[in-house]
Design goal:
alpha+beta; FAD/NAD(P)-binding domain; D-Amino Acid Oxidase, Chain A, domain 2; 2 domains; 8-stranded mixed beta sheet; 24 strands; 27% strand; globular
Length: 431
């Protein structure tokens, strides 16, 4: 969808500098940087409330993403509220009813989500365009080919974004700028330093194969020594395979696909599964994985999705965090945007809401990483969960974003864990 005044001529500014301005009657209410799930969810919800919203992205359409392509059961109500769940069914999203975890010692934990809940496996190449289409149909504008470079500040408040579009310097002004531009977020870097996790320094290799022997209705996790591999059945033929391991062990090579299959095949129980696997396209690399933004808000700006931080893909929390953080951002910012004031002041309520929703899940993910780091601990946890089905069911409900992870604390699953340094746990830097 094009913006009003599609020709949008550049105008002279400050002598020799040319500034590309989008014709508008007033500034945007909301500028969303990034057309991924978080950005599209936020834009859809803001547009539903009659606000003037524009999504900017450097790509003309959502590009392929390095992702496990798993939607937890907790995502489904969020997608239903956006009105897209039926569309996902129509493009062949595959129901997943639980997880199967294989330990280095040969134990297998078969864990199901509490009925009637289930997750979905779907390629991002299908999910992201659907979310963008819904945002546009809801009234949001989409400006492609925009490479964001910096925030525009005025009186200690963010009043827009600057960048380049089609070779021209471009300024967009708005009352609220939403950083939804992922792990390399320009908005996050301009608001303050992005800090890596103090000890969790992982990297991921992700690709597609056909011919792998895998389960059809659950995701499978194969745990090795300080690494793990996930098999996600995307279609009857296609499997998403992802290997997560220590970044210091990564050796860049021309053939990442060969490295992925060779390393995955070395994990206990996985070698025979991949004997007939044929790679479909090249594998891709992503890392380091774990990081946090030191602040989630500033006057006139907020961070959502991966721009706010990311820990690890073991529990598949990425898409849920994107959709849910977008909802929280809208809930917290909407009262200010409905006031006639030109700017939106800092919104600490969003940081507090993010903390309530995500801190315990980060603790749970950190606990699971400790188990992966210690094979004997992983064996003990899996044996305990196999003996206590009620605990296994509650763990799956928390992993699937059906109940808050804090509900597991009375079961003493995380009693030995120190507090996780989630984004909202960092002190806010001054603007």
């Amino acid at each position: 969808m094009s913006l009003p005044g599609a020709h949008s001529e550049p105008i002279p500014h400050s002598g020799t500098l040319w500034v590309f301005r989008i014709p508008r009657l007033k500034m945007w209410d909301v500028i969303v940087v990034g057309a991924g799930p978080a950005g599209c969810a936020a834009a859809t919800n803001f547009a539903h409330h009659g606000l003037r919203v524009v999504i900017v992205d450097r790509a003309a359409a959502p590009p392929p993403k390095v992702c496990g392509e798993y939607l937890s059961p907790g995502c489904l109500p969020l997608l239903e509220r956006m009105g897209v769940l039926k569309s996902l069914d129509e493009v062949g999203a595959r129901p997943l009813f639980g997880m199967r975890v294989h330990t280095p010692g040969g134990q297998v934990l078969r864990a199901r989500y509490p009925p009637p809940h289930y997750g979905l496996a779907i390629r991002r190449a299908r999910l992201d365009p659907i979310l963008l289409e819904v945002a546009i149909k809801s009234g949001a504008d989409f400006l492609s080919g925009f490479q964001a470079s910096d925030l525009i500040w005025e009186d200690n408040c963010v009043v827009g974004i600057r960048g380049r579009r089609r070779g021209h310097p471009t300024l967009l002004h708005g009352r609220l700028t939403i950083g939804a531009d992922g792990r390399n977020s320009v908005v996050a870097r301009r608001l303050g330093a992005v800090q890596r996790h103090r000890w969790l320094d992982k990297i991921a290799l992700v690709g597609y194969v056909e011919g792998a022997w895998r389960s059809e209705d659950v995701g499978e996790v194969f745990i090795g020594r300080d690494r793990y591999c996930i098999l996600n059945p995307i279609t009857p033929e296609l499997t998403n395979i992802g290997l997560v391991f220590n970044r210091r062990e990564f050796r860049p090579a021309a053939d990442l696909t060969h490295n992925l299959l060779q390393a995955a095949g070395s994990l206990p129980g996985l070698r025979d599964r991949l004997l007939r696997a044929r790679p479909i396209g090249p594998a891709r690399c992503l890392g380091p994985l774990a990081y946090s933004a030191q602040r989630l808000t500033a006057p006139g700006a907020m961070l959502i999705g991966d721009a706010a931080g990311f820990l690890d893909p073991f529990t598949g929390e990425g898409i849920y965090a994107a959709l849910r953080s977008a909802e929280l951002a809208v809930e917290c910012a909407l009262p200010s945007l409905q006031e006639p004031s030109a700017t939106v002041q800092d919104l600490p309520a969003y940081s507090e809401a993010w903390q309530r929703d995500f801190h315990a899940k980060w603790c749970l993910c950190t606990a699971l990483q400790h188990a992966i780091h210690r094979p004997l601990l992983a064996e003990g946890i899996v044996a305990c969960l196999a003996r206590v089905p009620t605990l296994s069911s509650r763990l799956m409900a928390a992993v699937g974003d059906l109940i808050p992870a804090s509900h597991l604390i009375p079961n003493r699953l995380m009693f030995w864990m120190p507090p996780a340094r989630t984004p909202a746990a960092f002190p806010l830097a001054s603007s």
